Every structure is written in C-alpha cells, then in structure tokens.
Amino acid sequence: RALQAGDHALVEGWCSEPSGRYFLLSRSTGRMQDARALLADPDSELGIVTLPDGTPVGVVGMLQIDRSQGRAELRKLIGEPVTT
Prior knowledge:
By secondary structure, the chain is of the alpha+beta class. Helices cover about 20% and strands about 30% of the residues. The two termini are about 25 Å apart.
C-alpha cells in the first residue's frame, strides 16, 4: 500500500535496527542516507508491504528516481520477520 504519514515512525524504527541500516545504504553512491531525509525525498517513492490482514511487515522503495533516464534504485526491507 502507499506510504501514509503515520508510517514514518514505523519505517524510521525499522531503519534503526542493524539489518535495517542497509536500506539506507545507496548502492549507486555508497553513502548512508538519513531515514527522515529519505522519507521526505521528492525523488523517491515508498510503499508499505503488508500481510493480508493489513499488518505492516516491510517497506519497498524506488529511490533516486531519474525520470529522464527512466531509472531508479530499488530497495526493500523486511521490518517485521513473519514466523509461522
């Protein structure tokens, strides 16, 4: 689903975890980004991955979108591991 204003704290929390920090690492530049800056970046589009019941479990994003070149960096993060 589309990212909603209430999701910002959730995504920031996931990104503060050791495994979540990789979501903030740009593969194209090698730089770490700040979660808040990433969420506010107009050249990025993020969405929340949910279970069928609506429970948020992760985030996926197209970052550093370059519409003139038709490219973006795709990243995903499993924030809440699902156990069965």
